[in-house]
Known about the structure:
Blueprint: E1 8-18, H1 19-31, E2 35-40, E3 45-51, E4 54-62, E5 66-76, H2 79-91, E6 95-101, E7 106-112, E8 115-123, E9 126-131, E10 136-139, H3 148-171, H4 175-196
Antiparallel strand pairs: 1-5, 1-6, 2-3, 3-4, 4-5, 6-7, 7-8, 8-9, 9-10
Helix pairs in contact: 3-4
Amino acid sequence: MRDSFVDVEFSEVYIELSKQALHQFIKRMMSQHYSLFWRYDAKTIYLMIELNESIHELPFVRNSDFLTLSADCLHIYDDTLANALEKLLQHEKGNGIVKRATEGPLYITSYQAGDIESMIEIDGSEKVMMNRNGSLIQYKDDDKSLEPKTLINMMNLEIDYVLMELHEAILESDQWQIDSHKKKLKKLLSRREQVEQLL
């Protein structure tokens, strides 16, 4: 049984996966004790991912050299699988919108060609949007302005995520990814410093 209810919604997802990337994803899920198998219909191939009582279906369209994960809406009720799918969006330069509810705010992250195009945090009546150029748009409801602390928390989440990816790239000795994550990290840290001036 899952300890807590998880529902991560992926919408307008489009990821072109090379066979190698798909094999790595399958290998990663199997190492986490998931059972995987394929189901076919006339147009779509489904990757069935099962753990305990939960089964998820990922729909793929077959192409000559790769498979395309394409779905208008996917609800993932498993945190490990949701994180793995979000990594695929980034690493394989995919497009999509990820809505992730936490015990506090709701985070909506929009990916375009693998990059975070915008991230919106919705917490009660407060909303913040951060786009990839680093500009922050604040919305005010009921005269409550958003505090810089909330922005810092949001950036810390993003920094943690990039650090996690950098760690993986170092373990895999992938120099291109290492350099790419270091650049992202540098930008994020500098952006965080600017917001810290407001505290």
